[in-house]
Amino acid sequence: MTAVELAQTGSLPQKRKGAIHWWRSYTAMLRWEITNMRLLLPITILVQAISGAGIVLGFGLLIPAMEPATAKYLSTGAVVVTLILVGLVLGPQLVAQQRMSGSYDFMWSLPVPRTASSAAWLSLNTLIAVPGMVAALVAAALRYDIAFDISPGVVPAVLFTLITGTLLGYAIAHAIPNPEVTMVVSQVMIFVIFGFSPISFPAENLPGWIAGLHRYLPFEHMANTVRGSLVDGLATDIGHSYLVLSVWAVLATTITAAVLGRRG
Amino acid sequence: MNADTIANPSVIRSGHRYWIDSYRNMLRFEIVNLRSFLAVVVVIQILMGAGMAYMYGFYFGDMPEIARTYIVTGIPALALVPVGFVLVPSSIMNHKFRDTYDFVWSLPVPRLASAAATFTVFTSLAIPGTIVSLWVAQLRYSIDLQVSWSIVPAIALTSLMATSVGFTIGHAIPDPRLTNLVTNLIIFLALMFSPIVAPIEQFPNWWASVHEVLPLYNMANVIRAGLSEGLVVSLARSWAILGAWSLASWVLAAWVVGRRR
User: Fold this and answer.
1) Residues of B with CB under 8 A from a CB of A
2) Distance in Å, alpha carbon of B188 to nearest chain A alpha carbon
C-alpha cells in the first residue's frame, strides 16, 4: 500500500495545507525558536545593544574633533551594521551550531511548511536586531546631538535590510554543509562588513576597486536606504539601492529554496 | 633513569639538569600540539594588525602626519594583543573543553618548566606577525619611522607580559565559556576604546587614567618609544606598570597552578 492509498483510506493523516495551517506552524516555530534560545536571547540582545552603542562611542574616542557630517555618517552606519550582523553573522553561526549539535535534520523533519519556519527565523532575527539599532540611535543622539529626521521610510528600509541580510546568511548557512566552514565564513564576514564596506564611512575613503565592487554588493545599498530614512541629505538614489537589494533578496531566496527544497 | 628511581618510583626528581630536560620536552610538546595552529596565528595577527591599519584609515579619512604616525606606531601593540590575550587563553581553554587539561598537568615535569615552555612558544610566535603588520602599516601610510635599539626589548617584553596575563586568565578562570567572553571583551576594548592608535590626551580624563594602569596603553607606549621620537612621555612609568602586570600575573598563575585540587 502506498502512502497515497494509506492517506485515502484514512490511516495516514491528510497532508495539511492552507493559510490557517501555515499561520499555526509559523507561531509554533517562532515559539520553538524563542524557547530554544531562551538562555542565550537576553545576552545576545545585550551584546547587540552594546556593539551598536560601542561603534558610535568608540570611534568618537579615536577620531578627534569629529565633524558633524562624519558623526552623522558613523551613527547611521552603526545602526546598519547591527542590522546586518544579526542576519549575516549571528544567523549562520546559529545554524552551524544546530548542525554541530546534530539537531539540524530534526528541525527540518518537523511537520511544518519550510516557508513558515523560515519566516519564524526572520522574525527572531528582527527581535534580536531592533534593540541594537535603537541603542546605536540613542547613543548617537546623546553623544553627538544629532537631530535625526526619521521618516516613515524607516520601516521598509530596515525591513529590506534585515530581510536581505537574513536571507543571505540563511543561504550561506544552508548551502555550506560543513559547519566549521560556516563559522570561518561568518568571521570573515564581520571583517568585510565592519572594515571594508562603506557603511559607516563614505565610499570615497576606500580604494577605487573596492568602492567599485560595492556598487554591486548589498552592503552599501543597505546603508543607503536606512540612512536616507534617518537623516536628510546624505543618501542619494535610494530607488536604485532598493532595486539592488531586491535582486540580492531574490537570489538568496532562490538559493535557500533550492537547498531546503531538495530531499537529502 | 638511575637505580634510585627504579627502586623507588615515588622519589621526586629534581635538579637543574632535570629541569632543563623537562623544559625542552615541554617545548617540543607545545610546538607539536600547536602545529596546525601556527599558520593561523600569523594570519590572525596580520588581519588584526595590518588589517586594522587599513580599516582605521577608511574610518578616519584624510589624516595629518601626526595621526598617521600614531596609527603606524600603535599597530605592533595591536598585533600582540590577539596572541597574548586571546590565543594563549584559548589554547588553555581548548585543553579544558577537550578534557586534556588534567592530563597536561599530570606529566612528570616541574610545572614551572611547563609554564616556561608555554611562555617561550607564544612570546616568540607573536614576533613575526608583529613585524609584518608594522611593515604593511608603514607602507600604507608612508611614515618615516625613527627606529631605535629599544624596540627589541619593547616588543619582546610586551609580548612576554601579554602572554603571562593571558596564561593567568586561561588558568585562573575555571569556566572556559567565561574565558571566551573575557577575551572577546579585551579585543573590543583594544580596537575601539584604547589609546593605542590615538594619543591618550584626546580621551576623557577618567578613561585616560583607567588606561594608565591597564596594560594596553602602556604596551603601545613602550613600543612607540622605540619607533618614533618626541611622541612618548612617561616611558619609565609605562615600563614599571608592564613589569607590575607581569609580576602580578606570575604570582597569581603560580598560586593557581601550584595548588592541589
Assistant:
1) 47, 51-52, 54-61, 67, 188, 191-193, 197-198, 202-204, 207
2) 9
Task: Compute the residue count for chain A.
Answer: 264
Contact A62 B56 (CB under 8 A): yes
Of B51, B56, B203, the CB nearest to A191: B51
For residue A156, give the amino acid letter. P
Place of cell 606570575: B250
Distance from the Cα of A12 to chain B's closest Cα (Å) equals: 46
What SS3 state is found at B64?
coil
Q: What residue of B is the nearest CA neighbor of A67?
A: B60
Return d(Cα A204, Cα A69) in angstroms, integer: 14
- Nearest residue on chain B to A196, judged by CA atoms? B55
C-alpha cell of residue A241: 539601492
Contact A62 B188 (CB under 8 A): no
Distance CA B57, CA B237 (A): 30
Angle at B95 (CA atoms; ends B22, A40), nearest 5 degrees:
160
Task: For B84-113, write each residue's pLDDT tens digit.
Answer: 898 888 888 888 877 888 888 888 888 888
Contact B188 A55 (CB under 8 A): no
Q: Is the pLDDT of residue B124 over 80?
A: yes
What does the alpha-carbon distance between residue B65 and residue B49 come to, in Å, rounded to a whole number?
A: 19
Summarize the confidence of residues B125-132 as an average pLDDT.
Answer: 87
Q: Is the separation of the CB atoms in B41 and B87 below 8 Å?
A: yes
Per-residue pLDDT at B176 exceeds 60: yes
Q: Chain-centre distance of CA A63, in angstroms?
A: 29
How many Å apart are CA B183 and CA B48, to the nearest integer? 14
Length of chain B: 261
A to B CB pairs, distance under 8 Å: 54
Q: What is the pLDDT of residues B45-58, one digit of tens each?
A: 887 788 888 888 88
CB B113 within 8 A of CB B22: yes
Does residue B162 have a pLDDT over 90? yes
Quick one: cell of A112?
A: 511544518
Provide the b/e sequence for B178-215 (b: ≥16 CB within 10 Å). Answer: ebbeebeebebbbbbbbbbbbebeebeeeebeebbeeb
Domain ranges of chain A: 38-261
Measured CA distances, B31 to A111, A163, B46, B125 (Å)? 50, 46, 21, 10
Q: Tell me what ipTM this predicted complex has.
A: 0.75
Q: Search chain B and give the residue with CA nearest A201.
A: B59
C-alpha cell read off for B12? 621526586
% helix, strand, coil for chain A, step of 5: 80, 0, 20
| Full-model pTM | 0.78
The partner residue sitting opposite B60, judged by closest CB among A61, A63, A196, is A63
DSSP B222-241: HHHHHH-SSS---HHHHHHH
> Are B61 and A205 in contact (CB < 8 Å)?
yes
